[in-house]
Design brief:
266 residues; alpha+beta; two-stranded antiparallel ribbon
Length: 266
C-alpha cells in the first residue's frame, strides 16, 4: 500500500476542540471553530488502518450543531434526494475543474461538505453546500499533514454520480423497511485503504452500510470479507478486521482508538 497523508478538516459551524493526536500524526489547531476529522495513515504496508472508520468515529456525532444531522431529511430540499445532492456535486466539479480530485465527502440532510485536492498538489481545501441553495458553495480550511501523496487517496470528481445515494437508499429499504429518508443519519465517501478503492458509508438509525463509488455492492461491514474466526484469513487480514472492530467499539474516544492502533497496527 502506498503512503497516505492525514488531513485536518476545519468543518464550518462546528465546535472548537483540542488538537487530537493519533500515533505520530497530530491535527493542527485552527483559529476558527473547527471539528477535526483525521484520516490516519497506514503505518505498515501490509496492514490497513481503516481511515474511514476512524473518520466516522471522530465526526459521526454531529458535534457543534443544535440540530441532528438528519433534521429535515425528508424535506424537498434534503441532500438525501439525489437531485439536490447533484446540484451541489456539479458546483464542486466546477470548482475543481476537469481532472479534479475529491478526497472526502460528508452528506447530511441540510449540508454537504466536500474535501478536495488543489489541482495535483499536496494541498487541499473544502466546500460546503447548504440545502437552502445547493449550488452556492462556501469554503473551509483543510490542513494536510504527514508523509505520502494525496494522489494515493484521490477520487476523480468525474467518477462521482449523485444516483449512488438513490441506489443505497433503495438497498437499505430492502433490508430494513424502517430505513426511510427520515432515519438516515449521514453518508460519507473516502478512499478505503483496505480495499484500495473509494467507498461510501451510509448510517441509517445507527446501522452502518458500505457501497462502491456508484452505490452498487451494497453491504454491511464484514460481508464477503471473512470473519475474525475464518481460518482462511492470514494474520494481517485478521488483525485488520480486529482493528476495525476495536475502532468501531471505541465510539470516537481518541485514547481508545490509540490503544486499538497500538494493539493491532503492529
Amino acid at each position: 500500500m502506498k503512503g497516505t497523508q492525514a488531513m485536518s478538516v476545519s468543518w464550518p459551524e462546528a465546535a472548537e476542540d483540542a488538537g487530537l493526536e493519533l500515533g505520530n500524526r497530530a491535527t493542527r489547531r485552527n483559529s476558527r471553530p473547527s471539528q477535526r476529522i483525521v484520516s490516519q495513515l497506514r503505518r505498515f504496508p501490509a496492514l490497513a488502518v481503516l481511515v474511514a472508520v476512524i473518520a466516522l468515529a471522530l465526526a459521526g456525532c454531529g458535534i457543534g450543531s443544535d440540530r441532528g444531522p438528519n433534521s429535515g431529511a425528508g424535506d424537498d430540499n434534503s441532500f438525501y434526494r439525489s437531485e439536490n445532492f447533484n446540484t451541489a456535486l456539479k458546483a464542486v466539479k466546477g470548482e475543481v475543474g476537469p481532472g479534479g480530485d475529491i478526497l472526502e465527502i460528508r452528506v447530511e440532510a441540510k449540508r454537504a461538505s466536500f474535501t478536495v485536492r488543489k489541482g495535483k498538489t499536496e494541498s487541499a481545501t473544502g466546500y460546503t453546500a447548504r440545502a437552502r441553495d445547493a449550488g452556492d458553495l462556501s469554503d473551509f480550511d483543510v490542513d494536510v499533514v504527514g508523509q505520502g501523496s494525496l494522489a494515493n487517496q484521490a477520487i476523480p470528481a468525474s467518477d462521482l454520480i449523485a444516483s449512488a445515494l438513490t441506489r443505497m437508499e433503495a438497498q437499505a429499504r430492502t433490508r430494513d423497511p424502517e430505513a426511510t429518508l427520515e432515519t438516515i443519519q449521514f453518508f460519507t465517501l473516502d478512499y478505503d485503504p483496505t480495499s484500495q478503492r473509494p467507498e461510501w458509508k451510509m448510517n441509517v438509525h445507527g446501522r452502518l452500510y458500505l457501497a462502491n463509488l456508484d452505490g452498487r455492492n451494497f453491504r454491511s461491514p464484514g460481508e464477503g470479507a471473512g470473519t475474525l474466526t475464518n481460518p482462511e484469513l492470514n494474520p494481517t487480514e485478521s488483525n485488520a478486521l480486529k482493528l476495525s472492530q476495536c475502532v468501531t467499539h471505541a465510539a470516537g474516544d481518541v485514547a481508545k482508538i490509540q490503544r486499538c492502533q497500538k494493539k493491532f497496527a503492529q
